[in-house]
């Protein structure tokens, strides 16, 4: 069993499936920068609070809110034209509990070989009072952009044995084929993600064309 931080787990799960990002740097005047930092800090304070997952709320809570109740883990490929498509995916336990184990059963099909450079984007949102609120990009974690997924993966270190055994590996290039594993397990340390419902949507591109796009909805208890 691998022992990883929640950030590394997010990188492996979302990145290898077909999602990613590079921090987009804006240039602001000092006054504007200070204002944005204050706003970001306030937003992070809000998102860092534990929230009751919607599956545990009574139906009366949703009357008049006009929002769809998050009831279980779900995923979908968000670009049918992308080179990589998830054919099946389960993540347990559901809801996730940190610290604790995270188990992944996945089948991935790659229609043609992809290699560097793989620009990518990642959007992480948390549901607060029935509204999805996007996490900002802070220290390369959150809703960020990345210039090259290949470069990011090269910093991860040892590739988990179950991924190696599939023949996929954790480094570019990713060759065309179908890859499946049912014994991918991680020991996740401290609860970096507060309890609540999360939407993780990411995409990668290769030579200007979609290489992968995945949307995950998951719950942390």
TrEMBL record:
<dbReference type="Pfam" id="PF02221">
    <property type="entry name" value="E1_DerP2_DerF2"/>
</dbReference>
<feature type="signal peptide">
    <location>
        <begin position="1"/>
        <end position="21"/>
    </location>
</feature>
<dbReference type="GO" id="GO:0006689">
    <property type="term" value="P:ganglioside catabolic process"/>
</dbReference>
<dbReference type="InterPro" id="IPR003172">
    <property type="entry name" value="ML_dom"/>
</dbReference>
<dbReference type="GO" id="GO:0008047">
    <property type="term" value="F:enzyme activator activity"/>
</dbReference>
<dbReference type="GO" id="GO:0009898">
    <property type="term" value="C:cytoplasmic side of plasma membrane"/>
</dbReference>
<feature type="domain" description="MD-2-related lipid-recognition">
    <location>
        <begin position="75"/>
        <end position="218"/>
    </location>
</feature>
<dbReference type="GO" id="GO:0005319">
    <property type="term" value="F:lipid transporter activity"/>
</dbReference>
<dbReference type="InterPro" id="IPR028996">
    <property type="entry name" value="GM2-AP"/>
</dbReference>
<protein>
    <recommendedName>
        <fullName>MD-2-related lipid-recognition domain-containing protein</fullName>
    </recommendedName>
</protein>
<dbReference type="InterPro" id="IPR036846">
    <property type="entry name" value="GM2-AP_sf"/>
</dbReference>
<keyword id="KW-0732">Signal</keyword>
């Amino acid at each position: 069993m691998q022992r990883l931080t929640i950030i590394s787990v997010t990188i492996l799960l979302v990145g290898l499936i077909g999602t990613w990002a590079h921090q987009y740097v804006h240039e602001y005047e000092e006054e504007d920068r200070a204002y944005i930092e204050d706003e970001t800090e306030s937003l992070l304070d809000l998102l860092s609070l534990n929230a009751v997952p919607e599956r545990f709320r009574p139906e009366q809570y949703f009357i008049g809110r006009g929002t769809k109740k998050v009831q279980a883990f779900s995923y979908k490929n968000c670009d049918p034209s992308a080179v990589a498509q998830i054919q099946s995916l389960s993540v347990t336990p559901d809801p996730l509990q940190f610290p604790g184990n995270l188990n992944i059963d996945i089948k991935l099909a790659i229609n043609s070989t992809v290699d560097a450079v793989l620009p990518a984007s990642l959007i992480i949102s948390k549901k607060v009072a029935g509204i999805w609120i996007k996490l900002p990009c802070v220290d390369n974690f959150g809703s960020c952009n990345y210039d090259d997924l290949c470069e990011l993966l090269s910093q991860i270190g040892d590739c988990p044995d179950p991924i190696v055994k599939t023949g996929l590996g954790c480094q570019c290039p990713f060759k065309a084929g179908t890859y499946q594993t049912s014994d991918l397990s991680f020991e996740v340390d401290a609860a970096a993600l507060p309890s609540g419902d999360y939407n993780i949507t990411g995409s990668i591109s290769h030579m200007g064309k979609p290489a992968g796009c995945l949307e995950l909805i998951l719950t942390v208890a």
